[in-house]
């Protein structure tokens, strides 16, 4: 027992022992009561037969009645006007019982019981001709002796029953809790470097299989989170190391010998460019963290989605012209959203589409409005995304080119991650689909009131 609390094993043992004793005791009491009631009914039936035998005589004649009482083997008392006028034994009829007999009258099924020395009497009262009250009694010592022996038989072994039930309960509780011990052994093996351990379900009962399944799913999420955290650490280290290495190398070169004013200016400009790259990466990571934890201040308002899309497309048209790309928009909708967040999400998708679109193709921005949601789809014609990369498209710093030597991309691999965080901040969804050579990123926002 720790901190005043019993272990579950002790609680189960005590509950089992307590329940066993309660059932045993209840059955013993019910059995004793049933036997006592049986004797009671038997005594009443026996004395009623005595009464019927006596009343066969001519009870109108008091002498005949007194003669019948005197010759009866049972204990009889003849009562009139609340007083005993005759009896066939020397047993004293208590005054309290006499009053009770008179009060009962015709309700003779209620017994009158009392003790005199070592004799226990049970009697019933019967009316005669509305003038007399005949009380007939019998010794019930033999009943009490049998009931005493029965109590000894029933309640005597209770201590033995307590010991037996405790021993049996310990056995079955240990056996019943053994799967929990097995589960505990597997859980204790888990460590940060051993997250691949899973609890086997075959040998567990159904109740623990549900718990083990939930536990295994939790480990799946933790393992995935640890893997992502490890990759994130590696990725962010790489993203920061490259510009810092460039800055360090350039400074070492420029300081190796006297330089002209123009060379110093070029080096400072190059260093500033690398520093801006670092600052942008850090700001993007912080933005994702804030968005995922609802820490971004949102200024939601009703916007014309088509109007915002057209404004952003006009800005990207210049970049599209450089790659001989057309950008088309279609559809109408209204959405309650933060203008800057929507603009940032769409900017990321459009810049991504332009970067990967085939030269001379058309990028499509489709807006669709339904009863409970608004969708914005950005599609471009280009090389299909490898199947192994689809599951990781929205991971931070993810690039299909693991060597990170793809010169066509100047970003850190955070654009899609930021877009997903913005969409999720509005309880929306974003997914990718491929159709007829087009890669489509679809943002779905639920419609809410401002």
Write the topology of this structure.
Blueprint: H1 8-54, H2 62-70, E1 75-80, E2 83-87, H3 95-104, E3 112-116, E4 119-128, E5 132-139, H4 141-155, H5 158-188, H6 206-255, H7 261-292, E6 300-304, H8 305-322, E7 326-330, E8 334-338, H9 339-356, E9 362-369, E10 373-381, H10 387-390, H11 415-425, E11 429-435, E12 438-446
Parallel strand pairs: 7-9
Antiparallel strand pairs: 1-2, 1-5, 3-4, 4-5, 6-8, 9-10, 10-12, 11-12
Main location: membrane
Membrane topology: Multi-pass membrane protein
Keywords: ATP-binding, Cell inner membrane, Cell membrane, Kinase, Membrane, Nucleotide-binding, Phosphoprotein, Transferase, Transmembrane, Transmembrane helix, Two-component regulatory system
Structurally, the number of domains stands at 3
Can you tell me the CATH class of the largest domain?
Alpha Beta
Strand content: 15-25%
- What structural class results from the helix and strand content? alpha+beta
Pick out the low-confidence regions.
Answer: 403-410
Instruction: Estimate the global geometry from the Cα principal axes.
Output: elongated
Percent in helix: 40-55%
Q: What's the mean pLDDT score?
A: 79
Number of strands: 12
Strand order of the largest sheet: 2-1-5-4-3
Count, helices: 11
In the CATH hierarchy, the architecture of the largest domain is: 2-Layer Sandwich
Major sheet: size, sense and barrel closure? 5 strands, antiparallel
Function: Member of a two-component regulatory system.
Keywords: ATP-binding, Cell inner membrane, Cell membrane, Kinase, Membrane, Nucleotide-binding, Phosphoprotein, Transferase, Transmembrane, Transmembrane helix, Two-component regulatory system
EC number: 2.7.13.3
Main location: membrane
